[in-house]
Amino acid sequence: MTKFHNYNAEDVVDVKPAECCETCQEQLDAVQQELGAYANAVHSLFGTVASMRAMEIWLALGESVDAPLTDRYPNWRKITIQAADKLVAMMTKDVGSTRSEVDTDGQ
Ligand SMILES: [Zn+2]
Question: What's the pTM value of the predicted model, to 2 decimals?
Fold first, then answer.
């Protein structure tokens, strides 16, 4: 089993085939499927801005050295769960800051 490699956000966005090996192609396919499903779900629930942010979070987690692994490869499903968690925390924080601004104006 080779180390997970040659992987970056551009590969996902461009959806170009992996040139190095079949395993990388399988990982690319898995990423497109997982990230695509996640982005679509967020888009249908919260709209375009939220889905863009969701993808940024997901890709950042996927590229992180702390990404959860299974058999030395990133566990994309776990990354999706972590990304959803972060997105919710971020959106909740946004709502909180907006509210505090309103409260401040009201005083
Ligand atoms: Zn490869």
Answer: 0.71
Residue 47 pLDDT > 90: yes
Query: Separation of 17 CA from ligand 1 center, angstroms?
Result: 11
* 5: helix, strand or coil: coil
CA distance 81 to 96: 23
* CA of 1 relative to ligand 1 center, distance in Å: 10
pLDDT above 80 (res 10): no
Task: Write out the two tokens for 15.
Answer: 């959806």
Question: What is the arithmetic mean of pLDDT over 26-54?
Answer: 93
Backbone angles phi, psi at 73, to 5 degrees: -105, 150
Distance 13 CA to ligand 1 centre (A): 18
User: Domain extents for the chain?
Assistant: 9-102
> Which residues are found with C-beta within 5 Å of the ion, ligand 1?
20-21, 24
CA of 20 to the centre of ligand 1 (A): 4
19 pLDDT band, cuts 50/70/90, is confident
